[in-house]
Each structure stands twice: as C-alpha cells, then as structure tokens.
Amino acid sequence: MSERPRPKRILLKLSGEALMGNQPFGIDDNVVRAFATEIVAVHNAGTELAIVIGGGNIFRGVAIAARGGDRVTGDHMGMLATVMNALAVEAAIERLGVSARAMSAIEMPSVCETYVHRRAAWHMDERRVVVLAGGTGNPFFTTDSGAALRALELECDALLKGTQVDGVYSADPRLDPTATLYETVSYQEVIAKDLQIMDTAAFSLARDNSLPIIVFNIHQPGALARIVAGEAVGTLISGDRKNEIRGKP
Length: 249
Ligand SMILES: Nc1ncnc2c1ncn2[C@@H]1O[C@H](COP(=O)(O)OP(=O)(O)OP(=O)(O)O)[C@@H](O)[C@H]1O
Ligand SMILES: O=c1ccn([C@@H]2O[C@H](COP(=O)(O)O)[C@@H](O)[C@H]2O)c(=O)[nH]1
What we know:
Blueprint: E1 9-14, H1 29-44, E2 48-53, H2 61-66, H3 71-95, E3 100-104, E4 113-114, H4 117-125, E5 129-133, H5 143-153, E6 158-163, E7 184-186, H6 187-192, H7 200-208, E8 213-217, H8 223-228, E9 235-238
Parallel strand pairs: 1-2, 1-6, 2-5, 3-4, 3-5, 6-8, 7-9
Antiparallel strand pairs: 8-9
Helix pairs in contact: 1-3, 5-7
C-alpha cells in the first residue's frame, strides 16, 4: 500500500451532483448536513479547509449548448448554480457552530463576499471554512479547474475531490462495470488515457505545480477524516513521487 500525504491545509472539491442525494435535481438537506458534519469534524481536528462547490445538481453549461443555446450564457447559469450550493453548505457548517464564509468568483455583494485571494487566505488563517462559488469565474471552465486553481492560490497541500464514485477507474465505472480502481495513478497517465473523472485543464494545472489530488467517495462516512490522517482512501493522483506534499521533498 502506498504512503499518503497528511495534508494540513486542504481544498475540498464537493460534487454538486452529490448534493442532490437520491433526488433527481437540487439540494437534499440531509445530504448537505451529513457533508457539513464530516467537514466540521476535520476542521475541529485542526485542518484548514477551503471548499469549491460544483453545480451539476442544478445546471451545467454544456446542457444549454447541447440544445443549441449559447454556451457562455449556459456557463454563467452554471456558475450561478454553484452560488446556491455554496450558500446551502455555508449555512449547514455554521449551524454546526463553525464559522464559514461563502465567496463568489462572480461579484454579488448583497449575497456573499467576492472571492479575493488574500481575503480568502486570511479567513482560513482565522480558522474559518471558506466555501468558494463560481468556479474560476470564466465560461468554458469547470469547478474542477476552479478547485485546482484555488488550491494553488491558497497554498493547499492537496486537492481532495469528493465525488460519487470510489476513486479513479480505468474507465467510467457508471458506464463500464469491468472498470478497475486505481490506488495511485500519475497525472501523465490520467491525461494520456483521457480518464474523465476531472477535466484535462485541472489535471494539467495540478501536474505543472505538483499538487497531489485524492479522488474519493464523498458518501463514505469518515472518508474525509481518514484521508487527512494519511490513510489510503480513494485514488492518489500525483507525479512519480507518490507521497509528495506540494513544495516539500
Ligand atoms: N475514469 C473514471 N473514473 C472514475 N469516474 C469517472 C471516470 N470517468 C468518468 N467518471 C465519472 O466522473 C464523475 C464525476 O462526477 P462529479 O459529480 O464529481 O463531477 P463534477 O462534474 O466535477 O461535479 P458536479 O456534479 O458538480 O458537476 C463520476 O461520477 C464518474 O461517473
Ligand atoms: O469556472 C467555471 C466553473 C463552472 N462553470 C459552469 O458551471 C457549471 C457547473 O460546474 P461543474 O464543474 O460542472 O459542477 C459548469 O458546467 C459550467 O457551465 C463555468 O462556466 N466556469
């Protein structure tokens, strides 16, 4: 079994799709509460956390483009969807007694703070959980790219992608029941094999800056805490030095 990083400051990418639970659309309050409980547990144990929220439970820009609509408009709608999710997660964390701040890459000052790198880093230093909405703030990107970008900006030790499946497989396990799960895989291999658990832009950014990514099943109770403790949960995507923490040999 490979050694794993023990990240102290993490960027958690939370799948929007995961927030809808068994519903066909939207936000399931019980699921949000369960995720918030896991997040608060690792926060209270000393981990510094930023969260990037997806929007797949509400809207994806490609859906409007597939119907012949304007992609940029669709992407703006998708980014706005992530703001709704961020507000729900922020509220759920605060209900558990931990201070949280939703920050959006798209300005909407009457709703939440605008993402400003130094301010987000300051909130983290002040032991607040920052909940980042709007992805990169630009169309034609995804919240996975936003997660890689923010993880680097906020000097996180690792990007943890909490998703619907157990990790990175040789093919999409929802489409191919024979797909096998990787315990570790290199950036180069996921890009070369076009493994679509994240987009290539996110993988490239992580590879170029030696940011380890751990893909895991967000529905598995206790998984987040076990990862932070250095346990081999899910799939570790990294360079050749499989247990490296960013910036440390
Ligand atoms: N090689 C692969 N290994 C694992 N999962 C894969 C792979 N290829 C495609 N997938 C699919 O990628 C999906 C990632 O889903 P997830 O909801 O986390 O994505 P997202 O688009 O980043 O988030 P959102 O739901 O917010 O849009 C998995 O549910 C899985 O079906
Ligand atoms: O930087 C970004 C991030 C997201 N979008 C749009 O939002 C939706 C939802 O994000 P997911 O990553 O799919 O959860 C995405 O489909 C894009 O339409 C964006 O334009 N730019």
